Structure formats: C-alpha cells, structure tokens
Amino acid sequence: MTTSTNASVNTTETQAPDDRHEIDSANAEVVAAMTAGQPVLVDVVTARTVIGVLDEQTPTLLHAGPPVDFADMPAPMQASCVGAAFFEGWAADEAAAREFIASKVRFVPCHHVDAVGPMGGITSANMAVVVVENRASENPTEWNRAYATMNEGIGKVLRFGAFDSEVVDRLHWMAKVLGPSLSAALASTDEGYPLMPVIARAIAMGDEFHQRNIASSAIFAKDFAPLLIKARLGTEQLAGVTDFLGRTDQFFLNLAMASCKAIMDAARKITKGSIVTAMTRNGHEFGIRVSGLGDRWFTAPVNTPEGLFFTGYSQDQACPDMGDSAITETFGLGGMSMIAAPAVTRFVGAGGLGDAQAISEEMAEIVFGHNAMLSIPTWDFQGTPTGIDIRKVVETSITPIINTGIASLEPGVGQIGAGTVRAPLGCFTKALEALAETYGVDA
Amino acid sequence: MIKPNQYSDSVSLMLLSKKLTDLDGVDQVSVMMGSPANREILAATGFDGPELEQAGPGDLVVGVIAQSDEAVENVLGRIDEELSAQSASRRSTGIQGVRSLSRALTKSPDAELALVSIPGDHVAGQVDALLDANLDVMIFSDNVTIDDEVRLKTKARDRGLMVMGPDCGTSSLGGIPLAFANSTRKGSIGIVGASGTGTQEVMIQIDRLGGGISHAIGLGGRDLSSEVGGITCLQAMSALDADLNTDTIVIVTKPPAAEVRARVEQAAAQLSKPVVALFLGERPQTDRAGNIHFAWTLDEAAAKAVELTGTAGFAPATGQRNLVGLYTGGTLASEAAMLVRDSFDLPALDPHHPNGMILDHDGFQVIDLGDDVYTRGRPHPMIDPSSRTDHMPQVFDDPATAVVLLDLVLGYGATDDPAGAVAVPIREGLERAQAAGRAIKVVASICGTDRDAQNLQQQKDILTEAGVTVLASNAAAVRHAISLIESARAGHADAVADADQQPVPARIADLLDGPPKIINVGLRSFATDLADAGAAVTQYDWSPIAGGDPRLARLVSLLANR
Description:
The structure holds two protein chains of two kinds. By secondary structure, chain A is an alpha+beta fold. Chain A contains 14 helices and 16 strands. The radius of gyration of chain A is 22 Å and the shape is globular. In chain B, the strands form four sheets. In chain B, strands 9-8-11-10-12-13-15-14 form an eight-stranded mixed sheet, sandwiched between helices. The A-B interface holds A 20-23, 274, 351, 354-355, 357-358, 361-362, 364-365, 391-392, 394-398, 425, 429, 432-433, 435-436, 439, 441, 443 and B 5, 7, 58, 88, 91-92, 96, 98-100, 102-103, 543, 545-547, 549-556, 558-562.
C-alpha cells in the first residue's frame, strides 16, 4: 500500500508543468541517443554518388571545420586543395591550381553534407568515401548516414597538405582499387560491417581512436581478410589492398570519425539541451554545435597543438589546429578518453599513466555521464566520458582536450608531429549566451 | 603579463612570488589572481597599466620589476616551470583534485562535511551549494559578511546542518584535525570554541594533563555576537551532549553579547554533562553554578575539564555515599581534607586528628597513614606499603564506600614499587564490591617524576590497569573525587536532564560518529593533512565559477536549474 501511494506521488511530481530541470532531461535524451548509436559500415563509394553538392556543375571542395574562405585557410589546408585540384584534373601545376581554386571553386564544410574530413578535410567529387549508417533506431527510415574519406597513412599525405605525385597517385589508387575492393568485400556480408563492437573491443586494447587506432585497424584487417578473398579480386589487387590495410595503423580513425558523426547527427535531432554535438576546426577557427542551438556554429580563434615532433621539426613550424576529427572527442573518445591508451600518453604530452588518468578525470568534470558500452579497463572500467555540457565547460573553464596530428605550416610537407590542443573557451561562452537567450534566461 | 584562466590559490602564489623575487637581478615579483582587490594591490605596488584592467579574477597576473630584460624573461620563463612543477608534485602526492562540486559529490557521495578555504567573496555562493548538497560546512575563509553568516547559519539550522565559521581556524572531529590543529590524545572532552588558538591551547593543555579530546567544534569569532545569536554554539553543545564519546564539555569564547551569553548559559545548564565555561576576558564571579564550572584562563579551563572527566552520571548503589582518602603523605592528606571540607561546607578540622583521622564527618574521611599511630613499631607507609594495603579491604568491603582517594609517593627513600603494592588489594577490593552489586571509584595522584627510580609513567600504568583514575596532582585528584561523590549523592538526576534534550539532527550526529568524510574546497595542504590523519578526503581544486566573470557565472547558475 505504502509503495503504491509513493509511486503515485512521484508520478505527479514528474508531471508537474514547472519541472525545473528541462535542460537536464533534454541532455539525458541526447546522451541516450549517443550511447544507443549503432554505426555500421555499409559501403565504400565515390563521393559524388552520395554527396549531392559534389555532383553539381560547380567545382566544389569539402573542407574541415566551420565555414571558411580559401584565403583564411592555413597554408597546408590550401595545399590540400591544390592536391585535390591535381587529383580532379582541374590543373597541372600549382599556380594554375591556386588560380582555379581561388576563382572557380565553391567551398562547403564537410559537416554541412553529413561528412567529416581529417585535418584539412579536403574532399572532392571523385575521392572514395566510406558510408557509415547509424542503425540505432528500430525503424530503418530513421537511420542516418555519415561519410568520410579513407585514411591515407602517415607522413606525406593530402590531409596534412602534401600534394606531390605520390600523394595524388595514392588517392587515385584508393578511389579505383581500394574503395571498390572494400565495397566488394562488404557485398558478401548480410548487413554490412558493425563498427560499434570493434570500437568497444579496441578501447579495451588501448585505442582511444584519435591518436591510436592500431588495435581497431588490426581487428578490421583481420575481419576483412576473408571477405576480400571471397570477393574474388585479382591476386595483385588483393595483395595491394591487404598490404595497405596491414600497414595503415590509423586506418580505423576515419571509420571512427564517420561513426561518431553518424551518432552525433542522430543525437542532434534532439534540439534541446546543452550538449556539444560537434567540435571541429579549420585552421582558422574552432567551431562547436550544441544540441539546444540547432545547426549554428559558435566559433573562436583556434589554438595551435603542442606535442612531440618528428626529427628535424619543432613547435614553431606547427600549423594551427585543423580537422573534423574532433568529432571523436565530441563522442567521448580521443583526448577525452586519454586513459584508455597508455601506449601513446607520452606522445600526446601526458607524462605517464597518472597524467593520462588526470586528463580523463578532468574531462569527466565537463560531461553529462559515461558510456557504459565503452568501458575502459585502465579506468576501473568506467565508461568513456559522454556528452560535453557547455554549462560545465563555462562553469569550470575546463575545455575539451583533443588529441591531434600536427601539420607543417610550410605547404607540401605534411605531418611533422602529434600532440594535444585545447578547444578555445570562447566558443563555449558564446554558445552559453545563446543558450541563455533560447531558454529566456538573463543575468 | 596576464595568463588567462589559470587559477591558483593565494598561498601557492605568494610562495611563488617569494621564490622568484630571490632570483638574481630581480627587484620585485608579484604573482596574483586578477581579482579587483588584487588589482588594487598590484596598482598600488607599482604594477599599474592598461593590461592590468583587462585581467579577471580567474586570470593569473604576473608583475616583475627587474634590472634587465633578461632577468624579466628569466622570471617569466620560471613561472611556467614552477606552476607545472607544482601540478606535477600534485600528481605524485596521490591526492587527485576535482574541479567542480558536482564532480566532488560524484567522487564521494557519502561526504558529510566540507572544509572551505577560498576567497571570502566567493564563500557565500559556494556554501549555499554545499548546504543544498546536504553537507555540514566548516568555513576557514574570512572576509564573509555577517549578513551572509547569519543567513547561512540559519539556513543550515533549518535543514538540520551545522556551519562552523566563517573565520574558523580550528576544529577536530573524532581525532581528525580540520585546518589548524594539534595532534592530541583522544579522550572524552568535547570543546566548543569560538577562538582558534584558544581551542588549540585548551587542547594541548588537556593533553599535557593526561586527558584527551573527543571533538573540538569551531564556531568562528562572530557566532556569539547578538546578530548571529550563537546558532552554531547551541548546536555544538547539544551535539556534544548527545555524543557517547564525550563526557565533559568545554566552551571557550571571548565575552559574548549579554543576551547571547544568557542563552548559552541557560542551554549549558540544561545539559546532562559537566560544562567548563571560559568567556575569556571576564573574571568569573563564581567558580560554578550547577553543572557549569567557570574558568579564568585557558589552562585553568583545561585543568577543570580533566578533573571533571569521567565524573558525570556516577550512580553507585543506594547507601554508597562515603569518600575515603587513604594517604601516606601528611601534607597531601591535609590538602585533600581542606578541599573536601571547603567543597561541602564541613565544620573546621580537628587539629589533633586522632588515629591520623584528618577529616571524619558525614561519610567524608581522610586518613593520614603516616601518623604516629600507624608507624609505631613498623616503618612509615612510604617505605612499607603494608600499613595501607592492610587497611584497604575494610574500606572496599564497607557498603557505604563510594569513592577511594589515594596518594602515591615516589623518589629516594620510597619503596620500589608503591603502585604494585596497592594494585593487588585495589583489584581484589573492586572485584568483591562488584560481586556485591556495588560500584566504587578509586582516584589517585602520584608525587614523582619520570626520573625517579620507580618511574612515574610505569607506576601510573600499573594503577590505571588496576582500575584507578590517575590525575596530575593531588588537588586535581581530590577535585575529581569530589565531583564523583557529588554525582553519587545526587543520585539519578542526570537521567532526568537527559529526557529534556532536543534530539540532535541526524546529519550533525553523523559528523561526530566516526571520522567524518570530507570534501576539501580550496587549500590542498588541508587535504594532505586530512589524508595523513586518516580521513577520507576528496580535494576540490576550487577556482572562481566561469573564471570569475560574474555575468557568465550567473548564467551558469540560472541554466543549472532550468
């Protein structure tokens, strides 16, 4: 008797119209959508076939970060555009390419077309992209997709601003050989290749999915070997693809990015609350989106990463931060889950396990909760910190920490190191002001 | 130079400033947070400028006066190094800090108390949040307005919580020192202290006299003002009265407002335990009123508390009303007789004291066993303890005996082991009395030092083990015995007083029940001390909300509850 009386009282309370915690309940919904995410790799295709703006007459390039003009892009990002112009056959030399880009090319943020791109994020019509579908809902009509180019490896690569023939040739090979091979492999699966189980397993194997992807990349290569064989590729093609997958330790990073993007876009449908749904940077500005503030970007000048450098390079050659890859931190991976990846803690500026733990503890201050699906053994099996709450960021002045690669400021050189960078506080305070307006609160 | 959003507490920054000023070629270094008050200080000490105006309370401001640009560069370079060295040593100390209250509460969901040491301007808001989280609070910080103090203490009381302070330097709960405190023996004396060093002095004097502390509850200097009205003092007194580990309560304050003093005394008179009250600066008009014993100095308060410890509620069987002193020292016996006579208003002493009977009236007896009567044909009892031990069985077996008072004299000439000699008949006597349904207390003092051949500490241990309460002087032992016999003769009045007590709120009672689980808000060194003392502590590395931007801080707080 007593129990049922209490229950009815509680029900009345929660139904009260002046429920004071509407932001918290909205955030709970957003985080529920995040933790329910079920990304599945369904295909690898040519970008223009799935991204409408790339299939139009106007020459178009996607770029990382919030909207930015070509002139405001840092040197390596502009250099990536040159590489893309070579790849698309728009020009044969750098001067012509720059001329073409400055006068003819339309720029669109990856984020505006369901895509994410690493570092410069430069994506053109004929590049291969992975198609990741978030199947969290039981209703297939609610499934949403995200796209990302594939990881090219390290060093001299387009995303870091290298554009010589080696880079462009590799992009052609990825578009003509690698992409179709993976697509053929996927065709032999019933419903694609589920990525969340890989992420959950690899986080226990020391990946945090931004600086370290070797465990997940290995799982991917292991799982795809029989699928590729079943796809009956030619011997040379099979050898090339398996060799590439075997060598490319960061291959899974782009799959993780697309997974996080698909999941965060599903969460973005809940247009209430104070949870960050995207973080990204274009080398000029850092931008965030917030659940309760729809598709608006809140930006502030971007910081330059600090970290360790390859021999011969140093901090003063480091390019300001770039890339949509901070979508992994938005979902709670990368720097947020630094403690998961002891092997790379020193590489990203953390001294040791204690420092890595201190970073994740600090990140836990600014999130709504933890993702029990992604349990971290080195953190007493706590889940990844999930749902960055801008109220907590502004309250504590703790900004998300992002694990990132460092590009050379000099165009054409590529990656020169790796480290960490903080999201600037300014975008969070701007968003908080906007949120206060949305919720009719004035100080 | 301004370093945005890099909060450090003022203690670390002062240490840092001092260290950097000592560098070669450097005249002055000032490292401070950019709060309005600090900006004034910086401007007044020659660090004026437009850059300073831009600094917020969450920004670190560095001012350097040096003989060369090189020296300035050196200082600026060292700051980053020193600040990161501080954070590195943090990690190695093992106490990991959290940066928000919500995280602190997640880390220690069963926390009972928060110790707050943050800039005064920020205290009220922070304490509000701590009270909302159902925590008792000790506020070490000063510079809190009295209006805020009244508001916070009233809010706490209404919620069954307690706020100690602001400007509360010293507390000790269940042996866990909070802020400034000495390491003292655990025992059964509870202290309610409005003054920090006063509480410390009473604590250490109690320790020196062989007594121990259950809890010391700090109030803050203004608690007994007419504005605050002794809110915390009254809470602390009733909490200690209900606490099973406390049997004597000491109140140490400066003279309170008259009406507050009346309220405190009235409340003290209602307590079931003896109370020692010291209103420092006021010479007491009387030694005692009912259960309240007044003291004039801190050490006197400590001594009275030690003498009263263990006397409350001594209720032996009906008919047990005699106090018997069995002395080997004649002058010690005379002092005992004098104090007893004075306390109970007995007739003048008989100068002839036949049979060594220095006092013998209405069940009060003091016998000098060194009297000629007892030494005829046998050695003095200081040499041969048997004259006293022979006498003991008849005292313990007398159904009227309630309290037995002894002296023990060590030193050259005295017997090898006087304590061992009396321990046997005392233990046997107590056992027989207990078997017969009687409760007897034995009280002693020892005239001796640690350098005496018999060794004071060893003799004391033997007596304590035999069930004897040992006090630091003959007079103290006598006063303890007097309080015991008063308690015995008063019967069960204390039990009645207990019935009038208001129940102590569960949250405050929890605080005194076992070492408190603490969230330390502010100074890390307090957390280290707490952890060293064995407390469960969560460190909250406080920094101003929203980096000290008042508008953003308000938005955060408004949006927190939307």
